[in-house]
Amino acid sequence: MPGTRVRRRTAHRERRRAAHRHALLAVASAVVAIGATAGLIDAGHQEGRDTARPEPSPSPVLQPLPAVPTPRQAAPAPSAASARPAPAPSPTDTPDRPSAAPVPPPARTTAPAPAPRSRLFRHPRSQVLDWVRAHPDDPRRPVIESRIATQPAAVWFAAHNPGEIAGQVREVTRGAAAAGRIPVLVPYAIPDRDCGGASKGGAPDLAAYDAWIREFAQGLGAGAAIVILEPDAIALSDCLSASGRAARFASLARAGRVLRAAGPRARVYFDGGHSGWHTPEKQAAALRAAGAATDGDGIFTNVSNFHRTADETAYARAVLAALGGPAGLGAVIDTSRNGNGAPAAGQWCDPAGRALGRTPTTRTGEARIDAYLWVKLPGESDGCSGAAGSFSPGYAYALATG
């Protein structure tokens, strides 16, 4: 009966559409949950350490990342990492038709991927975008929207969520590829994360972390990507025993190899701390032990911190020189809140008088500096202008007009 067949096809299409809408809503919820966690970084003020550490903040993963830069003291301070927008939903395979077996991307050769030279990806979901949409009449909205919400920023993956992480990463990389942009991805699930501070969490052990990273890598695909591998995992590793530190570094080296093999055009950057923390020689020694020269494409500095770009550029080059390794090793710098430089010692929590830094770009014009990035999204609180990781329009406006 033709009419019956038409009704069946129509009902089948409706069921597929409903399933697709349900999948999209589920992803969006995960993204919102992640964004809520995204700026939570605690400044681990301890004797001899000036640091701003990440806590779980909103990212494409289901956990928040605190980002709180700490003041420079006599001793180095860790960087503050923040979690960012969760991945936006992208089309999924329909249930009524088996999908073709995935074709693995070509394996990475020993040569590093070329430095990124394209526009960066702005995820369509973030706390600042949610605020802009919800407050059309707020007098601060035009400034916050034009100077912050329109800028590309990193996407954080802060939850240890085996079985889900590959799909979450894929949501972002596919969206970026469709837009012809480069995504900035932040895996943040190393065991003993933040030395048990406000951003504590992560995988239960290194074996579980290794498995999680392998799943993370499955979502990279063949497109260009920038991976900010575990903020503070190297610079803030002194809290571990010698054996614990060696085990972590070995795991980071494995992670670098896995990510680069799975993503032939992905560049993986290892934790370089920042210019107000360890000396270049000390940081380079730790980076070398973690495989940065052999299993990575460079280093990142100033994550969620405030040190000036010129200081970070000089510091990054000094670290790279001490590190040695392939000539293709480069550095990326978090410039999201460093327009006025670092605050006075001891001020790390949403300090007054700060300003936006250079807008994100892969065209820096500086030798060995591959990109200026917004790893921490301006306006996400360190925990003083609002709950850690939450979006504070007052703080965002102050940064945008500072």
Keywords:
single chain; 402 residues; alpha/beta; seven-stranded parallel β-sheet; 10 helices; 7 strands; 35% helix
Distance between the termini: 71 Å
Report the uncertain regions.
1-10, 16-106
Count the beta strands.
Answer: 7
Largest sheet: 7 strands, parallel
Radius of gyration (CA) equals: 21 Å
Q: For this entry, what is the oligomeric state of its chains?
A: single chain
Strand line-up across the major sheet: 1-2-3-4-5-6-7
Q: What form results from the Cα inertia axes?
A: globular
Q: How many helices does DSSP assign?
A: 10
Strand content: 5-15%
Helical residue percent band? 25-40%
Give the H and E element order: HHHEHEHEHEHHEHEEH
Helix/sheet category: alpha/beta
* Mean pLDDT score: 79
Describe this structure in words.
The protein is of the alpha/beta class. Helices cover 35% and strands 8% of the residues. It has ten helices and seven strands. Strands 1-2-3-4-5-6-7 form a seven-stranded parallel β-sheet. Helix 5 links the parallel strand 2 and strand 3. The radius of gyration is 21 Å and the shape is globular.
Layout of SSEs?
Blueprint: H1 2-37, H2 127-134, H3 141-149, E1 155-157, H4 165-179, E2 184-187, H5 206-218, E3 225-228, H6 242-262, E4 266-271, H7 280-289, H8 292-295, E5 298-301, H9 309-323, E6 330-334, E7 369-373, H10 393-401
Parallel strand pairs: 1-2, 2-3, 3-4, 4-5, 5-6, 6-7
